[in-house]
């Protein structure tokens, strides 16, 4: 795994700049009236939001939390009805939204992965061009963690160990060729590490395997790691994003601080390509107002998520950049050759 690709790292550096320009923390002025379409008719009924992950997970909770607050800023106080459609790493729900009508009553909520990573494996019938981004509400990233009694106190100590003993360290992920594995593959490409990946079917089995001593570390989403760091079960060694979530110790370095490529990903609402632009703009403005609501900000922080609004245009830039980043990593790590 000691491979370095000059073109690969040039692309990642360029994309890191683009992503940094496209994302913004919560800002704006929620003091105006809720946006209206020209005839004031939308919405006349509840809006269904497909979530491609199980109820109770971080994606589901992020969607429900935003839906509960944003109705204050949508005309008529319209309800957002969350419908879970897990499967294909979010691809099942994404496909249903892509094939929906553009009247604004069928939307999706998802992390970027089903549009920026899954298509590189040939498992989708859609591309990111088949959707209309509406609003990002939060960002998150992955955390690399070991058991609290592991011999490595810092990321630097761990890095020295794995570089001295290549191939000896095993780490678990929530699935084969998942986002956490892609992040770790990129780190391996940059540092020359040789690690062994052990994919599990979900976050809980991966964490259980680590606590049971069956793997040496895990890479999972922040919301799945931080509670176990707070209760003393796990020690976080690296946060793959830039802005750390509430609850993560100050001494845990970020990938950006260590000079590595960051993996910040957003969770966003979106509609089918045929979504009426007026409806898109109305919903986007409502979400921007909601993102300045202390109720939503506090609720997201309690979920170990970072509140962060992005507009439709900003989302287009972010998604395109992450798509190219993932393509480079998938090819360099040989993940596109795996089944």
TrEMBL record:
<dbReference type="Pfam" id="PF03401">
    <property type="entry name" value="TctC"/>
</dbReference>
<dbReference type="InterPro" id="IPR005064">
    <property type="entry name" value="BUG"/>
</dbReference>
<protein>
    <submittedName>
        <fullName>BH2007 protein</fullName>
    </submittedName>
</protein>
<dbReference type="InterPro" id="IPR042100">
    <property type="entry name" value="Bug_dom1"/>
</dbReference>
<comment type="similarity">
    <text>Belongs to the UPF0065 (bug) family.</text>
</comment>
């Amino acid at each position: 795994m000691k491979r370095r690709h000059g073109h690969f790292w040039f692309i990642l550096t360029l994309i890191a700049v683009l992503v940094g320009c496209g994302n913004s923390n919560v800002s704006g002025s929620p003091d105006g009236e809720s946006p209206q379409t020209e005839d004031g008719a939308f919405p006349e009924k509840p809006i269904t939001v497909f979530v491609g992950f199980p109820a109770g997970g971080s994606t589901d909770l992020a969607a429900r939390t935003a839906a509960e607050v944003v109705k204050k800023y949508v005309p008529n106080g319209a309800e957002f009805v969350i419908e879970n459609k897990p499967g294909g790493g979010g691809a099942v729900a994404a496909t249903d939204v892509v094939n929906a009508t553009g009247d604004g009553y069928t939307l999706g909520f998802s992390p970027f992965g089903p549009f920026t990573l899954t298509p590189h494996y040939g498992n989708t019938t859609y591309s990111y061009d088949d959707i209309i981004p509406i609003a990002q509400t939060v960002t998150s990233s992955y955390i690399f963690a070991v058991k609290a009694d592991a011999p490595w106190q810092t990321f630097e100590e761990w890095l020295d160990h794995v570089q001295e003993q290549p191939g000896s360290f095993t780490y678990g992920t929530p699935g084969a060729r998942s986002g956490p594995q892609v992040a770790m593959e990129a780190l391996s490409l940059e540092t020359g590490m040789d690690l062994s990946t052990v994919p599990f079917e979900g976050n809980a089995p991966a964490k259980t395997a680590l606590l049971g001593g069956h793997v040496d570390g895990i890479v999972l989403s922040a919301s799945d790691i931080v509670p176990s760091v707070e209760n003393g079960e796990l020690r976080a060694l690296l946060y793959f994003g830039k802005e750390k979530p509430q609850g993560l110790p100050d001494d845990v370095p970020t990938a950006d601080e260590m000079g590595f490529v960051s993996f910040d990903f957003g969770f966003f609402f979106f509609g089918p390509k045929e979504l009426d632009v007026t409806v898109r703009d109305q919903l986007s403005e409502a979400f921007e107002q909601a993102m300045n609501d202390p109720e939503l900000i506090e609720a997201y922080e309690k979920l170990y998520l970072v509140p962060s609004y992005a507009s439709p245009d900003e989302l287009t830039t972010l998604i395109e950049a992450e798509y190219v980043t993932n393509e480079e990593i998938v090819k360099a790590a040989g993940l596109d050759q795996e089944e």
